[in-house]
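Incident log entry.

Two folding requests arrived from the same account within the same minute. Monitoring flagged them as a possible duplicate submission, but the sequences differ. Recording both here for audit purposes.

Request one:
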Amino acid sequence: MNEIFGIPVQAFLGQLMLGLVNGAFYAMLSLGLAVIFGLLDIVNFAHGALYMLGAFAAWIMLDKWGVNYWFALILAPLVVGIVGVAIERLFLKHLYGLDPLYSLLLTFGLALIFEGLLRDQYGVSGQSYPVPELLSGATNLGFMVLPNYRAWVVLASLAVCLGTWYLIERTRLGAYLRAGTENAKLVQAFGINVPLMVMLTYGAGAALAALAGVLAAPIIQVNPLMGSNLIIVVFAVVVIGGMGSIMGSILTGLGLGVVEGLTRVFYPEASNIVVFVIMVIVLMIRPTGLFGKEA
């Protein structure tokens, strides 16, 4: 069998793999958005900029201090997580209880500031980041050649996404987080520091975005526009999965990445809009998204 639906098998599977890689990034970024919106009720338009900051942090660490990829996987999310904590403490804490539109406008402005600062410093041309030696090359599976780094991205993203879901939905800490955002005064009466939990939750969401940026750095050119080019699609993924639904964001991100990849095979002209077409259809049928809760 050399063809699938009239497409050469290797070309079909190659696009399927590319779709899975894109879906992994969609899942990780939409997961961070879902955590921040679901627990804090913040529409975080700075998420794409935090993703970009993670990639730039990894590149700068390598370029200036020789920090390799494996250390950058830890240090870059930590640095951007601290930036996220600063954003929450300095700006977002003043908007709690207000319409989410205010947080959207504020984070959109912050995203433009981050993007403008890095564009002024480094321009818009991309900076290359090398694939770590351990993950270089490819594995011949017989029916296709699988790039090792792309396989790593998919596996690492799945592990992070499922680990985050388990932490929030199946642990006592996750229960405290959910309870603290629903009734802060009651939870504080039990001696739990809710403002600290909120601050760390936003920082963790920022760190997730930065981790996705580090994973993306060896695949795409690191540049100030990489976040703004992706965030609109990721918001569409979150809306389709259901605002605030963590598992919905994971499954929808992976699924839409595959759909987008296969669309490039069968109808390339529609590959850039297929996610938005699906979003329109889903909102017409189920306004809360596929996995969202009815009000």
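Request two (distinct sequence, not a duplicate):
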Amino acid sequence: MSYRAVTRDIEVIVTPRYLEDESSPAGGRWFWAYEVEIVNHGIRAVKLRSRYWRITDASGKVQEVRGEGVVGKQPVIRPGERFNYTSGCPLQTPEGIMVGQYFMTDDTGEAFAVDIPAFSLDSPRTGRRVLH
């Protein structure tokens, strides 16, 4: 299942998947990879400067992550182009939710935030999903 959000002609598509080989439920560790595609439908180039994630596990524990760029890059995405990357998230519960924002500047220097849609992290034995 993919989750989508569009802000100022920038589309963010996230596809999470549970990684059973990286998880150890008996040890209290569940791990997901998530693929992100950022598509520039606008008329200006944009640069992804930084990110913010809010990760909530099934017990209600919240972790906030802030940092420069994504996967060590601050990509410039020109009109009609897309940027893809994959990252991961461990939790101490078999389910959780992630949501966030990318902070960008356009080619005029204007700064703005782009929403990352909320998406579910569900192990195969859970049935809950964030509606999109």
